[in-house]
Q: What sequence folds into this?
């Protein structure tokens, strides 16, 4: 039986130097990976608002705006004004949904921004 020896193959680069066929892997960072659902964690733990469950699923832009206003005014977690907190949570939701947000829902939420402005008298 013949003895087979494993060897690493090498190849020549354009400069004529030999390099190993195996590529050295980049050193992995020792940082811990971010939680997969960081936006969910932000929604739950941030000092923005205590939102009513399913507020962004409501069928009317006026209802969404009214619920956000109510939550913003009664929240003990917010650091800024009620209008700014409500608008930032609405924008946060729209931005995080990204392309997966259905067009009808997106237009409803964009209308809710206008309604929120009206509700706070900022027209």
A:
């Amino acid at each position: 039986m013949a003895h087979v020896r494993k060897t690493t193959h090498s190849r020549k680069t354009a400069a004529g130097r030999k390099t190993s066929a195996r590529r050295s892997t980049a050193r992995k960072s020792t940082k811990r990976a971010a939680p997969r659902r960081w936006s969910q964690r932000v929604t739950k733990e941030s000092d923005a608002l205590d939102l009513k469950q399913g507020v962004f699923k409501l069928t009317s832009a006026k209802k969404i705006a009214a619920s956000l206003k109510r939550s913003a005014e009664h929240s003990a977690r917010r650091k800024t004004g009620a209008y700014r907190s409500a608008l930032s949570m609405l924008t946060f939701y729209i931005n995080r949904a990204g392309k997966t947000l259905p067009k009808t829902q997106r237009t409803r939420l964009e209308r809710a921004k206008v309604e929120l402005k009206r509700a706070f008298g900022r027209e």
Q: What stands out?
A: The chain has a mean pLDDT of 79. DSSP finds four helices and two strands in the chain.
